[in-house]
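Saturday, quiet lab. Running sequence design on the structure tokens for the scaffold JK sent over.
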């Protein structure tokens, strides 16, 4: 029996590059996910508050508000608690993973992303109970003042 469309979850994708938007949408929708695309971090915050996603895919380099600041804000106010935030980065430089985690992302993928890697990664995160990963996010949030700055000891 064929899977009904959009049965697997609602994904908010923040990506400013039209070709990447097209590719990500095609892959995710073929995997049964509903996808809402926005082209900057500010729009991601607004859309995510309007309709709570099951998962956020967040490009790190966007206009208006980059992915790092977007992740910080998503995590700081708690509105996205229980929603995995996965960074998408074209730069696979040393330290990039740590930088995305410090901003509040729960995981990251390097672009270009392969179809199977994307679908498996999204499915893996959606299958996790928030109790498996939220404590790490809350602990990171507790070390910061909500704007990515370390709190004084």
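Result came back. Writing it out in full:
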């Amino acid at each position: 029996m064929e899977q009904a469309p959009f049965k697997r979850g609602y994904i908010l994708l923040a990506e400013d590059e039209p070709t990447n938007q097209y590719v990500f949408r095609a892959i995710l929708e073929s995997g049964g996910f509903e996808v809402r695309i926005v082209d900057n971090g500010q729009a991601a915050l607004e859309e995510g508050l309007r309709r709570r996603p099951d998962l956020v895919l967040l490009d790190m380099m966007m206009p208006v508000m980059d992915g790092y600041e977007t992740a910080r804000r998503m995590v700081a106010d708690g509105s996205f608690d229980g929603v995995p935030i996965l960074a998408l980065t074209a730069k696979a430089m040393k330290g990039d993973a740590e930088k995305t985690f410090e901003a509040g992302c729960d995981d990251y993928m390097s672009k270009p992303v392969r179809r199977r890697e994307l679908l498996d990664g999204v499915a893996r995160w959606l299958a996790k109970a928030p109790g498996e990963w939220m404590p790490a996010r809350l602990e990171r949030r507790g070390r910061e003042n909500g704007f990515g700055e370390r709190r004084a000891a």
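Notes for JK: Strands lie at 10-14, 34-38, 55-59, 85-89, 107-110. The CA atoms of residues 4 and 56 lie 22 Å apart. Ask whether to fix the surface positions before the next round.
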